[in-house]
Write a structure and sequence with these properties.
Belongs to the TRAFAC class myosin-kinesin ATPase superfamily. Myosin family. The two termini are 25 Å apart. The protein is globular. With 660 residues, the chain is an alpha+beta fold. Helix 5 runs antiparallel to helix 16, helix 13 runs antiparallel to helix 16 and helix 20 crosses helix 21. 41% of the residues lie in helices and 16% in strands. Bound molecules: adenosine-5'-triphosphate.
Length: 660
Amino acid sequence: MEDGKPVWAPHPTDGFQLGTIVDIGADSLTIEPLKQKGKTFLAPVNQVFPAEDDVNKHVEDNCSLMYLNEATLLNNIRVRYSKDKIYTFVANILIAVNPYYDIPKLYSQETIKKYRGRSLGTLPPHVYAIADKAYRDMKVLKMSQSIIVSGESGAGKTENTKFVLRYLTTSYGTGQDIDERIVEANPLLEAFGNAKTVRNNNSSRFGKFVEIHFNEKNAVVGGFVSHYLLEKSRICRQSPEERNYHIFYRLCAGAPEDIRQKFHLSSPDTFRYLNRGCTRFFATKDTDKHIMQNRKSPEHTKSGPLKDPLLDDHGDFARMCVAMKKIGLDDTEKLDLFRVVAGVLHLGNIDFEEAGSTSGGCAIKNQSSQTLEHCAELLGLEEEDLRVSLTSRVMLTTAGGAKGTVIKVPLKVEQANNARDALAKAVYSRLFDHVVTRVNQCFPFDSSANFIGVLDIAGFGQYHNNNNNKTSEFQGFYREREQELYQREGLGVNEVHYVDNQDCIDLVEAKVVGILDILDEENRLPQPSDQHFTDTVHNKHKNHFRLTVPRKSKLTVHRNVRDDEGFIIRHFAGAVCYETTKFVEKNNDALHMSLECLISESKDRFVRELFENSNNSKDVKQKAGKLSFISVGNKFKLSQNTPRLNGAPNWLSWENSGLI
Ligand SMILES: Nc1ncnc2c1ncn2[C@@H]1O[C@H](COP(=O)(O)OP(=O)(O)OP(=O)(O)O)[C@@H](O)[C@H]1O
């Protein structure tokens, strides 16, 4: 840093501010802000960075900055963003900032044509440039390619994934409607897998890996979508400003009157699975008039519709029906889907009360008998069977006494509530699997030479806290590639040593002693509890470097957490205190055997088929009596392996404009 030259120094709200160094101390610098002459402040040496000569000038690739540091990188992106240049390269990585409005011509057909076949860096940074690079690499290297899209919720991952798909299918399609179908499938996936959250009105609540397949001549032949980790807790409960999956509201707002009556639909406030969240529909002033008054919740009537330029529940219902038709779903299948969605809504309205008998069990409230009838009818179940299966569970004694005797254990109100919610989650997630399967059948292909995969890592931001494994996998992979590149280019960059956090991953994932397995074991106990689980974790890992008790935290707020209420894990990036309240409950997606048998043997073919080929239904009878336990933790472990990342990944990182 040269004398008198401007530097970037920390700013409490803006991140960095320009100033000059007026004095140099042992480990801090005295800075005079350019905008507040005379008002000096101290800044740690390692947080002050040299600034470019002209801070208003911007470059298309951050690597072209004279000084590349955190502050100049952010400033470059900010300056570009203010000029509607939302994309910036960092070598072959693309950073994007969400503009939250349509930038004219940014994604037009002319722009698509412009990027076709052009090398990275010859045209301004764009998502199309990354898509084309992946295509050209696939062609030249004869190897499948992957584009990794990461960023926090609302950053623009889904939108840009769609731009990549559209670019590839438009530029390298065969002109058949397969290209269109791949894009058409999105509204259907979004209806069942997207929801309004506080951060994003159209948040994807599942991760996806979309493959566009190409033939020997490198033309698009088909597509394939893999999904993983649908957020299931949302099916039963949402926070006050959030909503359940769009399909529930679209059905309530837009279904024709005959369907509404057939499926006994009403306004969102009348359903437990909707009324603890926001019950308003998305609509404009005009489209709101198309929604009948008896379909609107009091909240909607009072506060008016939710506004979003891209969402409109009434109109989206109609658009979704068109999309279903286009991708080959007939009316019967469409109604099947709607019927099961309605069945889930009615299931949620079943209430339980203590039975008042000595058994300690519960019964379905009288007021719920109509709901029970509707639910049974919609899901193809016998009303009485549903009643019994929701309020008791069948077990097989395995120890002492007559081994092998089947006994019926009455459920307490709380347990019956959990059983009902587990059934709802199982039915809806199977329905979602079915939607994805059907979507995949719409763009079939006999054979493919290679594919370009786009991995949309939903909620990647959060993985820093709770998914070391995925983060470390990506970081390790990426770091290796970068170092290879530096070596190839002959750059004298020192090798960056990478801290291996395998011990941390093992602490969470190891068989038997890992935290997830301990939690599963807790769920299998007759009386599982969060406290007992937490104690077990501490006991099993007493001297583990990565694990400690909350009272040893540096933060007062964590020190107040009791030892049996949480644990601290020292992650690579820092220590995180995990409070374990409700861990046991949240880990439990278990469908007890009676319910699983009941739903797998539904009279309704569609419902029955949803549960066919399930790992659990196959051996449900062999597992007689044992609680058929499906843990969230285990699913999480399994689904991390789902995407197949091939070839060199092309990396896109989306930033929410709020961050910059
Ligand atoms: N390039 C863009 N141009 C215009 N608007 C955009 C763009 N990218 C995103 N948006 C707007 O931001 C909203 C949120 O983007 P998007 O749904 O793609 O975020 P996301 O990162 O996929 O979030 P989540 O992880 O919650 O699904 C979009 O609905 C759209 O309104």
